[in-house]
């Protein structure tokens, strides 16, 4: 049985999640970069991360990196256009981290709006076909000899500006996740072994207590 302190910590984590934010990794394929971006998403309250690739080898790396963090929700895709259509239907502004003649300073963006941020492959950035369909490209100004940052470092710089704006606007002051989804995730993160058994059996999760302490219930794996 989970102890009350950890249960409350997990609940608080979910209550701080920003349901109107999403990170999109476009063919990001180096495991250490993938894992670092996922950790930063967790740190700033992003629940949903999308990884896109048509190459099986990259998809395998993305899945492996996603499995390193149970605290975020990673979804794999092989179609960027379909994903962008879904994100747009959710009312999100779609931004891509990429320097070009139309890009703007990343700090000039209003991140309190529903937002999806696309980070591209380490060497090439987002695909040209992706850039054609974003609302805005953004860049991090440089004053040195280097022309770009490592993709995970760039993601962290942008995401902590996003967090700063949202903290200032009070976006973290109340839960934004759908209540049913929050309860589902709370059960899975608090009772991973039991939830996995119930999923395999096709059974629903027991209801969680409304109190801010762990629920106590009996569980018989064979039933």
Q: Could you walk me through the main structural features you see in this protein, from its secondary elements to its overall organization?
A:
- The chain is of the alpha/beta class.
- The chain folds into two domains: 1-16 and 180-223, no CATH class; 20-169, SPOUT methyltransferase, trefoil knot domain (Alpha/beta knot, 3-Layer(aba) Sandwich), CATH 3.40.1280.
- The chain is 41% helix and 17% strand.
- The protein contains eight helices and seven strands, in the order H-E-H-E-H-E-H-E-E-E-H-E-H-H-H.
- It has helices spanning 4-15, 31-44, 56-66, 80-89, 128-131, 151-169, 179-190, 192-201, and strands spanning 18-26, 46-52, 73-77, 93-97, 104-105, 115-120, 136-139.
- The protein has a seven-stranded parallel β-sheet, sandwiched between helices.
- Helix 2 (31-44) links the parallel strand 1 (18-26) and strand 2.
- The longest helix has 19 residues, at 151-169.
- The radius of gyration is 19 Å and the shape is globular.
- The two termini are 19 Å apart.
- The model has no long low-confidence stretch (mean pLDDT 88).
């Amino acid at each position: 049985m989970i102890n009350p302190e950890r249960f409350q910590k997990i609940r608080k984590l979910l209550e701080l999640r920003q349901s109107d934010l999403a990170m999109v990794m476009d063919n990001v394929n180096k495991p250490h970069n993938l894992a670092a971006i996922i950790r930063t998403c967790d740190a700033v309250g992003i629940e949903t991360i999308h990884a896109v690739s048509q190459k099986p080898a990259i998809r395998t790396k993305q899945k492996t990196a996603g499995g390193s963090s149970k605290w975020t929700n990673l979804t794999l895709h092989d179609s960027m256009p379909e994903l962008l259509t879904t994100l747009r239907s959710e009312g999100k502004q779609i931004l891509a981290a990429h320097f070009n003649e139309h890009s703007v300073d990343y700090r000039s963006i209003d991140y309190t709006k529903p937002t999806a941020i696309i980070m591209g492959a380490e060497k090439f950035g987002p695909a040209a076909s992706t850039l054609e369909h974003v609302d805005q490209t953004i860049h991090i100004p440089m004053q040195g000899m280097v022309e770009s940052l490592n993709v995970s470092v760039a993601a962290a710089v942008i995401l902590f500006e996003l967090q700063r704006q949202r903290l200032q606007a009070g976006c973290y002051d109340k839960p934004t996740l759908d209540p049913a989804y929050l309860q589902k995730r709370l059960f899975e993160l608090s009772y991973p072994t039991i939830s996995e058994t119930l999923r395999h059996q096709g059974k629903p999760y027991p209801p969680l207590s409304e109190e801010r302490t762990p629920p106590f219930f009996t569980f018989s794996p064979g039933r």
